[in-house]
Write a structure and sequence with these properties.
The protein is an alpha+beta fold. It has four domains: about 70 residues; about 130 residues; about 110 residues, Helix Hairpins (Orthogonal Bundle); about 150 residues, Histidine kinase-like ATPase, C-terminal domain (Heat Shock Protein 90, 2-Layer Sandwich). The protein is built from 13 helices and twelve strands. Helix 3 runs antiparallel to helix 5 and helix 12 runs antiparallel to helix 13. The radius of gyration is 59 Å and the shape is rod-shaped.
């Protein structure tokens, strides 16, 4: 999972998990402890504070007064006593009180019974207004306050029942309910905050770990590179943004390592080159100086000796010229020489080259044999530079041959894959030890023990051959096949 997706997921979980868990806790609380508060609340304030039920109770009481002819006595005291001590009155009082109502009964404007306080009357007047005084039938409510007034006639008497459900009456219960609910709400709020903090902490740790861990690896890798240690790979397998960064960093480390190794290799090659040049220049120069001293000191006191000394000087001078030419060619190729490539029939090119050099090779007692396979051999060559390959290989054969007459076999064929032309140049010389086959193409490398001669080569000829082959996109290797065989492959152009 990418860092971007992790951040998006964590943002969603930071909100969703606390809300979901808190909702579950709230539902459980509502169905358990908070249920008692809820049912009490419902009982108190359902059906508009029991207004309809209270109206029904008052109507039933009116019917009972009418049917039993209560309150018809002429004297007020007797009427009060009769009504107050009736079972119906007791029942009405209990029912209305249970609903939170207090009430009064008047007869012709005079109070027969009342448990209303002045505050209750003021509360009823604040709800019903002046209608409380002149209205015959009245029902009014506001907030938790309800007012019911019912007027009926019994003979010549006018009875009024006024019931009031005051806020103050249920203040204790209301406060109890409010406080209980507030406590639960406060607890749920604290739980929500705690869950939010906890979830945010866990998710932050998760996200920070996803970021800090690869950053730590990058920091360690940077430290290793700063200290010159390029061998430690970057180990980070996750496929996120940092995974790509770590892989790019590791590729950079590998590239730096390769560059450092190449630089060290180039430096070693330059040192070897300087050492080889110094050695190869010093030896013929020392010989030339020795012969010149012999001439100057009169050691060569006969015409024959002087001629022999002069011929030796000429030979050594020619070796120096050849060495300088080889060095010049190698330096030119090593500096990034640009080849002039042309599409060439490789088979025809080799045949024409051999026809050109065969007379000279025969003069040097070198016999050539050429075999060509079937198929097309269309390649891209720098025709002039590629001649140097054959020239150096023939020179190497002549220089290191072990008998006066030598033979060179050249073959050309397509590889098994069919996408390369394979040229094999094989002599009948002594070959080289197996452990030295991979080194003979290095500059100034000589196999003195196995390919020793009176005229040692510079050790650059085969190095030039390798550089030209690599410049053509090919490969080169050496094998022992009854002599030294140099195998060259060149890409074939398919049409």
């Amino acid at each position: 999972m990418t860092i971007k997706k992790k951040i998006r997921l964590s943002n969603i979980m930071m909100v969703l998990i606390p809300i979901l868990f808190t909702t579950i806790v709230l539902i459980v609380c509502l169905n358990t402890s908070l249920g008692s508060y809820w049912h009490t609340f419902i009982d108190m304030y359902s059906d508009e504070n029991g207004v309809q039920f209270a109206q029904s109770m008052i109507y039933n009481y009116q019917q009972e007064l009418w049917e039993n002819n209560w309150g018809h006595c002429p004297e007020m005291d007797a009427c009060q006593t009769e009504i107050r001590h009736s079972d119906e009155m007791t029942h009405l009082e209990n029912k209305l009180s249970g609903l939170g109502y207090r009430f009064m009964i008047t007869k012709n404007g005079e109070s027969i019974y009342s448990n209303l306080s002045d505050t209750d009357l003021e509360t009823a007047r604040s709800v019903a207004g002046d209608a409380i005084d002149y209205a015959k039938m009245l029902t009014a409510s506001r907030y938790e306050v309800s007012v019911i007034k019912s007027t009926f006639w019994h003979g010549e008497s006018i009875f009024c029942i006024t019931a009031v459900h005051p806020q103050e009456t249920d203040g204790t219960m209301v406060n109890y309910l409010k406080n209980g609910i507030l406590r639960y709400l406060a607890g749920i709020l604290i739980l929500f905050v705690a869950l939010t903090v906890c979830i945010n902490g866990i998710l932050s740790w998760w996200i920070s770990g996803s970021i800090l861990k690869p950053l730590g690896k990058l920091s360690l890798g940077t430290k290793e590179i700063r200290e010159g240690n390029l061998d430690t790979p970057m180990q980070y397998e996750k496929k996120d943004e940092f995974g790509q960064v770590c892989r790019d960093f590791d590729e950079m480390r590998a590239y730096l390592q390769e560059s450092v190794q190449q630089r060290l290799k180039d430096e070693k090659r330059r040192r070897d080159l300087i050492t080889g040049i110094s050695h190869d220049l010093r030896t013929p120069l020392t010989t030339i100086m020795g012969y010149l001293d012999g001439l100057l000191d009169g050691i060569a006191d006969t015409p024959e000796k002087r001629l022999r000394y002069l011929q030796a000087i000429k030979t050594r001078t020619g070796n120096l010229v050849s060495l300088v030419d080889s060095l010049s060619e190698y330096s030119r190729l090593d500096a990034g020489f640009r080849y002039h490539m042309e599409e060439t029939d490789f088979r025809d090119y080799v045949e024409k080259y051999l026809e050109l050099v065969r007379p000279d090779m025969e003069n040097q007692q070198v016999q050539t044999e050429y075999f060509s396979g079937k198929g097309d051999f269309l390649v891209c060559l720098d025709r002039e530079e590629f001649k140097r390959i054959f020239n150096n290989l023939f020179a190497n054969t002549v220089r290191y041959r072990r008998k006066e007459n030598s033979r060179v076999m050249i073959s050309l064929k397509r590889t098994l894959e069919g996408n390369n032309a394979e040229l094999v140049f094989q002599d009948d010389g002594p070959g080289v030890p197996e452990e030295c086959l991979e080194q003979i193409f290095d500059s100034f490398y000589r196999v003195d023990d196995s390919r020793n001669s009176a005229e040692k080569g510079s050790g650059i000829g085969l190095a030039v051959v390798r550089e030209i082959i690599l410049g053509h996109g090919g490969t080169i290797r050496a094998e022992n096949r009854g002599g030294l065989a140099v195998i060259v492959t060149i890409p074939v152009i398919d049409r």
